Amino acid sequence: MQNDADAANPNLQDIYAAEDLQKLGYTQEMTRSRGLSHILFMTLAIMAVPYGLAAPIATSLVAGGPATIIWGWVAVSFLTLPLAFSLGEICAKYPTSAGAYYWCFRLASPERRNLLSWINGWLTLVGVWTISLSVTFGTAQLIVAGTLIYLPEWAVKPWHTYLIFLAVTAVAVVFCVFFNPILPTIDVISAYWTLLGVIVILVCVSVKAAAGRHSAAFALGHFDPSPSGWTAGWAFFIGLLPVPYTFSAIGMIASMAEEVHNPSSVLPTAIVWSIPIGFICGVFFLVPILFTLPDIATLISVASGQPVGLMFELIMGSKGGGFGLWFIIFGIGMFCAISISCAASRATWAFARDAAIPFHRTFAKVNQRLSGGIPLNAILLSTAIQVLLGLIYLGSSAAFNAFVGIAVMCLGSSYAMPVAISLANGRADMADSPFRLGRFGPALNAGAVVWAAFELVLFSMPAVLPVTPTTMNYASVVFVAFALISAVWYLISGRFHYKGPDIPQDIPREEHQEVDEKREFNS
């Protein structure tokens, strides 16, 4: 174990982390450049709470309004905590960029681990690609909303939005490829931008309130599910969609494990603390908006389907004021696009490293000539997949919207699988985790699995009734389609060449003791 002197020495931390990574079956190829603050801020940048709540706010307005928005935020924040604790415990024991599919391989029985890790790996990969796509495309739609503040007569066509999406994606890729050494600093800037932005929005909307002020009864209790067509109870659950979307990628920082100092301690701490910090940020963002909310019918009738620009314009009483607050959300979206694209590329690289995707040798390479070592080919593959999937928007905006749901469903399933396997094993494998949950472990694990299962149902439902080809939620169809493709691929090819991570034999207990004594001597 590392003592206090070790913890204060990043060089020793990195040496020990490389040794531990070797025991997990991998060679250190990436540069460790992130401490606790960096990885915590990256998690918060990926969550992008104000952006995550604002971009899909139309769904919550349709499915109940203020009561759904604020109490849904409270409820889902608490329901996500068991998953965060459960992921932190497993991640602390197996801190590798392979993430959840590696955890499944180590926790499952020898007879099932290849298949389960293969399924989990593809769930993870589809999840990180589609969640990154939803952020970059959502930011493009946000740009459209900001433009409409000054050009309300602009007839926005799908190809306009797609071109803007390409521009947003290009910016994110440029930062991931050419500015990798400063990405930790960018995550720090993102945290300050978000904090100051929430404060500015709180003050500005509270002072101006040009659309009028509401009572606490309205801001915290008004509930009208009629626009959704659902019954009151189910409409509330449908209105929760923006909140699980905001929290859906908390486990993605596991893919950064091999770029983190002391990952067994840093990663679980960042995952767990991101929930309460994000919760507080969300409360300070939502409450002032709900007390000054413009007419809901006006907001949900916006032709573009993205009412954020109009909402801020009406609250501030001027185009300039509305644009200023919109720009804060836009900045958060861009920071999120950069951070989430980086994490998605690492997940792609890790799966390729274990020979689980076509041309895996190409996509598993780390380019040491660029930015201190980056998986350039994996970055380009992840980006190319997202650009191609984005083309679906040109044919059907409803089909594209399903990718938001499929991202949450895939990531939620991939997180729940290793937790469920560990729980089924009686949690015996977690007895020596550096972040052990102790007697609370079974309850927290069970809560995480149940919530993930409920998310699968929730994100399969259409947001409004009656269901038409336009309002149909295709997430379940896409989810099943990806599952079938990966299963068929495994039968045709995967089972013959995919052997899972190459795990060395566990070293004897005596050698562990020698390593600990050596660390104490060095410190």
Automatic annotation (TrEMBL):
<feature type="transmembrane region" description="Helical">
    <location>
        <begin position="443"/>
        <end position="465"/>
    </location>
</feature>
<keyword id="KW-0472">Membrane</keyword>
<dbReference type="Pfam" id="PF13520">
    <property type="entry name" value="AA_permease_2"/>
</dbReference>
<feature type="transmembrane region" description="Helical">
    <location>
        <begin position="122"/>
        <end position="150"/>
    </location>
</feature>
<feature type="transmembrane region" description="Helical">
    <location>
        <begin position="323"/>
        <end position="352"/>
    </location>
</feature>
<dbReference type="GO" id="GO:0022857">
    <property type="term" value="F:transmembrane transporter activity"/>
</dbReference>
<dbReference type="GO" id="GO:0006865">
    <property type="term" value="P:amino acid transport"/>
</dbReference>
<feature type="transmembrane region" description="Helical">
    <location>
        <begin position="69"/>
        <end position="87"/>
    </location>
</feature>
<feature type="transmembrane region" description="Helical">
    <location>
        <begin position="400"/>
        <end position="423"/>
    </location>
</feature>
<dbReference type="InterPro" id="IPR004840">
    <property type="entry name" value="Amino_acid_permease_CS"/>
</dbReference>
<protein>
    <submittedName>
        <fullName>Amino acid transporter</fullName>
    </submittedName>
</protein>
<dbReference type="GO" id="GO:0016020">
    <property type="term" value="C:membrane"/>
</dbReference>
<feature type="transmembrane region" description="Helical">
    <location>
        <begin position="231"/>
        <end position="254"/>
    </location>
</feature>
<feature type="transmembrane region" description="Helical">
    <location>
        <begin position="39"/>
        <end position="63"/>
    </location>
</feature>
<keyword id="KW-1133">Transmembrane helix</keyword>
<feature type="transmembrane region" description="Helical">
    <location>
        <begin position="266"/>
        <end position="291"/>
    </location>
</feature>
<feature type="transmembrane region" description="Helical">
    <location>
        <begin position="373"/>
        <end position="394"/>
    </location>
</feature>
<keyword id="KW-0812">Transmembrane</keyword>
<keyword id="KW-0813">Transport</keyword>
<dbReference type="InterPro" id="IPR002293">
    <property type="entry name" value="AA/rel_permease1"/>
</dbReference>
<feature type="transmembrane region" description="Helical">
    <location>
        <begin position="471"/>
        <end position="492"/>
    </location>
</feature>
<feature type="transmembrane region" description="Helical">
    <location>
        <begin position="162"/>
        <end position="183"/>
    </location>
</feature>
<feature type="transmembrane region" description="Helical">
    <location>
        <begin position="190"/>
        <end position="211"/>
    </location>
</feature>
